[in-house]
Amino acid sequence: MGQYSAHSPPLSEISRRCCSGCCSLPTLAPARALLWLTDSVLPFFLPAEVLFDQIFQVDAADKVVQPPPGDDMANDQHSLPVPAQWEIVQEPADARNSLLPAFPARVGPVQVLAAACCEAASRAAATRCGRVRYVRSVLSEPPPAVVAAFGAAGTRPVALGGGQGISWVARDVVLKPAELDQEELEWQAQIYSQIPWAGFRLARRRLAADGLWCVDGWCATEYVTGRHEERRWAEIIAVGERFHAALRGIPRPSFLDQRSSPWAISDRVAWGEIPASEFPRVRHLPQLVAALRPVTAPNQLIHGDLTGNVLFDRQQPPAIIDFSPYWRPTAYASAIVIADALVWEGADSQVLDAVSHIDDFGQYLIRALIFRSVTDWILSEEESADSAPEDDPWAPAVHLARQLAARPDL
User: Fold this and answer.
1) Strand ranges of the sheet holding 316-320, from the earlier edge strand across to the other edge
2) Rounded to an integer, what distance in angstroms lies between the CA atom of residue 365 and that of residue 256?
3) Alpha-carbon gap, residue 156 to 146, rounded angstroms
4) DSSP label at 24?
5) Which of 40, 119, 304, 345 is 20 to 30 A from 163 (CA-CA)?
6) Could you tell me which CATH class the domain 233-405 is placed in?
7) Ranges of each domain in the chain
8) Angle separating helix axes 394-405 and 361-380, nearest 10 degrees
9) Banded model confidence at residue 388, pLDDT cuts 50, 70, 90
10) Which of 41-55, 129-143, 165-179, 319-333: highest mean pLDDT?
11) pLDDT tens string 227-272
12) How deeply is 317 buried, as exposed, middle or buried, from its count of CB atoms within 10 A (0-12, 13-18, 19+)?
């Protein structure tokens, strides 16, 4: 649901990257980018919190599907749970949350030309950004031609549980909507072939029969056995450290400079490359920024979203999936796992035992909380900084991080 406005940036400015910090908005100052988001195109059929950077064509749709008034309908009750590419969905204003209609009067329908996915950084059940509500929807399975192109002809894909709910397995191939552009796909395949697998496994990219990385908007990786298991934070951090040791020495990829996604913006806020003053409504941000001190650890290639992307198998080393590259100190990746554990997964201060070997960890935890909280605000933008809900999941983690950051020995 959404629109492509005459006042929106031209299509040439809309990047094709997405996911875990690599889906991109036009290169704008953060405040201006947020304003532009309120006029972005947000198609209904995507399977996760909807993207910021789809590619669109004006006046391409044949018709509009509109549900009846009221709150969101369950997917199994919708007359067309998965609209075709020539259809879009407009929702009316919701009386309970005062959301404005998805389409201002000046806007016409659009065709979705490319589909992708994005990291579920906000844990809200219905994420919001500006005036537009993001919803989860059901994605149809990859078509037979796509399955055949990746070497699994005649196999009916089976939906994989967990994650964003957008992956399908057919034989030994996992298929999901295209997330990355050609440059990053080729780069990832190249570095996976270079690094030694010591104490971890990787889900390598799979080429189609015609030598392409994507077919009709779908990409593929090897299927790796295992599953995500809750509360194994120490093991996730340990396998991340082994992975980062293998990545040491790989040059910084140039595509990192092109990112302007919520995750990329938030990461730069955490490291002082974008002023925190651009985000005055993010709760706890002033206190977190006030606790910052410089760190001296070197930057290198890291995986910035390990928490839900390590799969455990009793017979084999853990598998790392959905690589989200950043150029930061390795301790930052561990701190993001700890931040997720404290804020979203019910951990207490004992989780710090997993990072007791990291010098000055409090500073990395401060930055990880800035990263996650700014991202969450950009994606949800539900409450102002002066609101104080009874159950604020950030408050205990912020208090603990500030205590750690005040002690240089921790």
Assistant:
1) 201-202, 316-320, 310-313
2) 22
3) 11
4) -
5) 40
6) alpha beta
7) 1-137, 144-181+189-195+203-222, 233-405
8) 150
9) low
10) 319-333
11) 999 999 999 999 999 999 999 999 999 999 988 889 999 999 999 9
12) middle
| Helix, strand, coil percentages, rounded to 5, for the chain | 30, 15, 55
Question: Distance between CA 134 and CA 125 in Å, rounded?
Answer: 9
Compute the distance between CA of residue 236 and CA of residue 250 in angstroms, rounded to an integer: 22
CA angle, 79 as apex, 74 and 83 as ends, to 5°?
95
Instruction: Name residue, tokens 């084999």.
Output: 316
Strands 218-222 and 87-89: unpaired
Span 280-294, mean pLDDT? 96
Hey, what amino acid is at 166? I
Alpha-carbon gap, residue 223 to 174, rounded angstroms: 5
| Whole-Å CA distances, 383 to 219, 280, 345 | 37, 12, 22
Distances from the Cα of 57 to the Cαs of 41, 67, 68, 201, 271, in angstroms?
10, 23, 27, 40, 36
User: Tokens for 192?
Assistant: 């996976």
Strands 158-159 and 168-170, how do they pair? Answer: antiparallel
H or E element, residue 57: strand 55-58
Backbone angles phi, psi at 146, to 5 degrees: -70, -45
**What pLDDT score was predicted for residue 378?**
94
DSSP 165-180: S--EEETTEEEEE--S
